[in-house]
Amino acid sequence: MKTATLQAPPQAPAPGRTIGFATACAIVVANIIGTGVFTSLGFQLPDIHSGFALLMLWIVGGIVALCGALCYGELSAALPRSGGEYHFLSKIYHPAIGFMAGVVSATIGFAAPIALAAMAFGKYFHGVFDFGSPVFLSFAVVWLVALFHLGNLRVGSAFQNLWTVLKLLLITALIGAGFFVQPKEAISFLPAPGDMMSIFGAPFAVALVYVMYSYSGWNAAAYIIGEIKKPEKNVPRSLLAGTVIVLAIYVLLNAIFLVTTPRQELSGQLEVGLIAGKHIFGTNGGRIVGAVICIGLVSAISSMTWIGPRVTMAMGEDHWLLRLLGRKNRQGVPTNAIVLQLLIVNLLLLTGSFERVVVYIQFGLLLCSLLTVLGVIVLRSSQPALPRPYRVWLYPLPPLIFAAITIWMMIYLLRSHTTESLAGLGTMLASLLLYFCTAKRPSPSA
């Protein structure tokens, strides 16, 4: 009788499927591209000097993200419901495991990156336009974006597409302008003697952790399956297309940074995008790149504002204690879940101390994605007859490659951030206790 309370009620109205392939792809692209690609290179250059090895970082990171996207594509087609890891892990392993992942995603998992992006937006916007307070701008952008998504799905879809297209156009312009900068720096991207040893060295492995953080978000469309038209086709396609687009952008952007800007100016610096922008566009180049980053941050905030509440909504539909969060307005928008996430974001902005929270939650997020990807193997074994409109290419290589890299990153995080990683595990265990409370409905029929 308990299992009956854990499954989605069959009479619950399904949200309207208004999202096409283009919007789903835009959500994936917007959710991946943040500030990481504009900041990571400076910390890679002190230990990695080969142009080939530097670009291979972003290629390897992209391949791992693609492996994950392939696996999430199969699960999305076989288990088509919004909720991401919450839904997948509930069906593959146990509802308690799914609930644990849902708590991680629905709270800090999306709220902390939104708050971080909002703070970065405030600083960049103030620096570019010399207008307003960075703190006020941080609050303003999250509220304005939330208001658009509280309206209806079509307005939110148009808003997301507009900002993502604008971001891609400006990044393309930045890459295109870099080809015309003269003179070029003396750097080669072809493999040279010793490069392969560099790729298998410790500096490369350490740098890959941060590159993978820049790729996080490749699974975005899996959280809104219930709102996507023909999800068995469009979700896998959007995951793959979005990840491939970002892989190409990341490789080209870093190549442009390296050929236009002296390495000694970039080495050890956080604002590599702003520094390279001055070499590409002249004295005002930093402002131009800063504007690109601002637009990219609005797009990323919009994507996470859209996705995060869908996890909370799915949990509210399944668990009586969270039922208020499962309610939607007439347009199918989970208003209560959006407001809850907005409140969490505002609290993080007020405290300004959420950077360590982001570090501590990374271990849990990696563990959830690892369990989900391995779930492809588990589900094929436990339910071989389950219809799978899309199957992972080159199976089982993608899940095994993803698992190997992710486990290595988790080991690195556990060693370098032991306290935060253990705190993340403690939070996940606490969410399991919360699950057993919400699973017991206080009624005679339970």
List keywords for this structure.
446 residues; mainly alpha; Amino acid/polyamine transporter I; 18 helices
Can you characterise this structure?
72% of the residues lie in helices and 0% in strands. The protein contains 18 helices and no strands. It has helices at residues 2-6, 21-32, 41-44, 51-78, 85-92, 95-129, 134-151, 153-178, 195-199, 202-215, 231-260, 263-266, 272-281, 285-318, 335-351, 355-382, 397-416, 418-438. It has one domain: Up-down Bundle (Amino acid/polyamine transporter I). The chain is mostly helical and 446 residues long.
Brief digest:
72% of the residues lie in helices and 0% in strands.
| Strand tally | 0
Tell me the domain tally.
1
Strand content: under 5%
Q: In whole angstroms, how far apart are the ends?
A: 6 Å
As a percent range, the share of helical residues equals over 70%
Q: What are the segments in which pLDDT stays under 50 over at least 5 consecutive residues? A: 1-15
